[in-house]
Write a structure and sequence with these properties.
- The protein is α+β, with helices and mostly antiparallel strands.
- Among the domains are: 47-109, Trypsin Inhibitor V, Chain A; 115-187, Trypsin Inhibitor V, Chain A, CATH 3.30.10.
- The chain is built from five helices and eleven strands, in the order H-H-E-H-E-E-E-E-E-H-E-E-E-E-E-H.
- It has helices spanning 3-10, 13-41, 57-66, 127-136, 187-200, and strands at residues 47-48, 70-77, 87-91, 97-98, 103-109, 115-117, 145-147, 154-159, 162-164, 169-171, 176-181.
- The chain has a four-stranded mixed sheet, with helices on one face. Strands 2-5-3 form a three-stranded mixed sheet, with helices on one face. Strands 1-4 form a two-stranded antiparallel sheet.
- The chain crosses the membrane at residues 15-37.
- This is PASTA domain-containing protein.
- It comes from Xylanibacter ruminicola.
């Protein structure tokens, strides 16, 4: 095949139109991919996140849907000053800009107050130590109820007049009362203490030891 014939076939109209068609297909693919990515990722589109904290979850969900956003509840907390099922926190926060379809994660207020296990404070700590432990857990501690026993030593915990044991779960809304020693003992306990002191002065067979004066 001569060179002239080769270039003649190469430059034929059929081949040229095929090349043009292939180029158009490539261009259309590039444009389509770019447009599709912009549509899928909402390129250039931004939405300011509204403040939904304090709203009921139904109202908050409606507000977010109007803005093109979604809500997902991830956790619950408790605030007795707010109604149940209202939004306590949101992430991302109000005022931030996000793309359409973005998920807003929220924490809602529980309808029930949390219950906490009573710590090991009975016959194990002083009044101040026990009070500090209970307050740190969220309990309200009422003035102590004094009982006979060592001064300021904790002998029990009561809730609404009922003694509660270590590890028992109690609502933090229920106030607690510590049973604390007054430093005074009952008559029987005092007799026992005196009896123990007298026993120490006696020998093993219960008789008092005799002493003999030694003369030099």
């Amino acid at each position: 095949m001569k060179t002239k014939e080769f270039f003649g076939k190469f430059c034929s109209k059929f081949l040229i139109w095929n090349l043009i068609a292939m180029a158009l297909v490539v261009i259309l693919l590039i444009v389509g991919v770019n447009y599709g990515l912009d549509w899928y990722t909402h390129h250039g589109e931004s939405i300011r996140v509204p403040n939904i904290e304090g709203m009921r979850i139904d109202k908050a969900r409606e507000t977010m849907e109007e803005c093109g956003l979604e809500i997902v509840v991830t956790d619950s907390g408790y605030n007795k000053r707010l109604p149940a099922d209202c939004v306590l926190t949101q992430n991302p926060g109000a005022g931030l800009t996000v793309k359409s379809g973005h998920i807003i994660y929220v924490t809602i207020n529980s309808s029930n107050s949390p219950s906490v296990a009573i710590p090991d404070v009975v016959d194990n700590s002083s009044y101040r130590e026990a009070e500090a432990k209970l307050i740190s857990l969220g309990f309200k501690v009422l003035p102590p109820q004094y009982v006979t026993g060592e001064k300021d030593w904790v002998y029990g915990v009561s809730c609404n007049g009922r003694k509660v044991s270590t590890g028992e779960r109690v609502s933090i809304e229920q106030p607690l009362t510590l049973l604390v020693g007054s430093g005074q003992y009952s008559a029987d306990e005092e007799l026992n203490v005196v009896g123990d002191d007298d026993a120490m002065m006696q020998s093993g067979d219960g008789e008092v030891d005799d002493f003999e004066e030694v003369k030099e």
